[in-house]
Design brief:
The structure is a homodimer. The first copy, chain A, has about 230 residues and is an alpha+beta fold. Chain A has two domains: about 130 residues, Jelly Rolls; about 80 residues, Orthogonal Bundle (Arc Repressor Mutant, subunit A), CATH 1.10.10.10. Chain A contains ten helices and eleven strands. In chain A, the strands form three sheets. Chain A has a four-stranded antiparallel beta sheet with strand order 1-8-3-6. In chain A, strands 2-7-4-5 form a four-stranded antiparallel beta sheet. Chain A has a three-stranded antiparallel beta sheet with strand order 9-11-10. In chain A, a hairpin with a 5-residue loop joins strand 4 and strand 5. The longest helix of chain A has 27 residues. The first copy, chain A, is elongated. Chain A starts with a helix and ends in a 6-residue tail after the last helix. The relative contact order of chain A is 0.13. At the A-B interface, helix 4 and helix 6 of A face helix 4 and helix 6 of B. The first copy, chain A, binds a DNA duplex (30 and 30 nucleotides) through helix 9.
Chain lengths: ~230, ~230
Amino acid sequence: MTDLDQLKQIPLLNQLPEEDLKNLARIVVSREYLAGEDIFYENDSAKGFFALVKGRIKIYKLSFMGKEQILHIFGPGEIFAEVAVFSDQKYPANAQALQKSTILFFPRQRFRELLTQTPDLGLHLLGLFALRLRELVAKIEELSLKEVPARLAAHLLLLLETEGKTTFSLNINKNQLAGLLGTIPETLSRVIKKFKDKGLIEMNGNVITLKDQETLKEIAQGLRRI
Amino acid sequence: MTDLDQLKQIPLLNQLPEEDLKNLARIVVSREYLAGEDIFYENDSAKGFFALVKGRIKIYKLSFMGKEQILHIFGPGEIFAEVAVFSDQKYPANAQALQKSTILFFPRQRFRELLTQTPDLGLHLLGLFALRLRELVAKIEELSLKEVPARLAAHLLLLLETEGKTTFSLNINKNQLAGLLGTIPETLSRVIKKFKDKGLIEMNGNVITLKDQETLKEIAQGLRRI
DNA sequence: TCTTTGATTTGACTTAAGTCAATGCCCTCA
DNA sequence: TGAGGGCATTGACTTAAGTCAAATCAAAGA
């Protein structure tokens, strides 16, 4: 697959005029990462940003005691670390491949030049940034306003929306899910058990079925205790 | 003060070429808000975004039980609600003036047209968005990785940086500060007392003096318990 | 099949922080 | 001067969730 073809896998970019895409293809660098391989580290000088063609990666921070807080998990078609390109020159968190992944790299300086020539690209990027801001505001709300059961319920309902069906499988393990919800595996395990006991969900392996969306919604909004 | 003069009070905008500023001045609407007056509500259709010329406003959410989580407090020169302009059409939180404030309003549609004509404006906005994203990521880290004493210490050190001196006065009351830190006034009060008892800070009224920055830093990083 | 290794679950305990209620402290205004 | 109101503090209690340690379970190889 050529760089150009890979670019077209990225939803944010594939609506750009062919000419812009060709320009982008000229500055982009494609490479593969193995599962567990680090992509960049917090405080690294930001040489550019990335787009994920294939695979899955996580953005995370480590506390002093080594507890991991996952800020984001990105899948195919998503862009990450673009923040670094426009503000200061350091990555704000770590990135690591969760699976074997194909990643496009956009060198900072060359992209910046390109951007001044193609205003449409800027507009699309503004849209992406705005959306990301929304997500983060939602995440702050989640972390600050809600208890763990509420966060889990909110997350499950979000998955329901994106999957479009009441039965779906988690594509991350429970350690990672705990990190994403801002808690620890033990607590997550206990909360899942309560959800099962109350008949809100069923779960075998990492396949989940939502049985009582109404109650889950109430829990997600803090209207009800589990 | 003309609209153009007011525009020049906004750091993000005042570096734009005079011509861009004049264009912006043509689409902008200026008005005053009284202390406590609402600016917009969560889920309102987003007709445009705002820039704060004078005063202070808060962006906040309410949980079902009425608990307020302050997401942001903006002062003169800052832009807010710009997210709504590029993503969907609803404001994600409430906004209210904390003081008598002069606010510029940029109508969505007219601004969008302008943006396509002046790519530089887009670049500057991308920078702002990137910075805001940074702040939110930092806030998530704060809320998810740290305890209340750590959040308070981090906040005080941040104030030290922006004020440039070890003695400064809080410009919000302790209820608001508690909200900003994701806690409640009682807890904040107890933590402040501990900080005072340990000689880390002094506080009379809302004037704070940082006495032991080293220990505050350690607490902010979770390296030490109070 | 039998280990081995890592993920998950469970139990016992600790702790940070929230709730509720009472009290204290200014500050303003009549 | 003193009464009222809002902010701030304190105490007693409750609770959600974290820690630590042990027990289970499960998948992957030898």
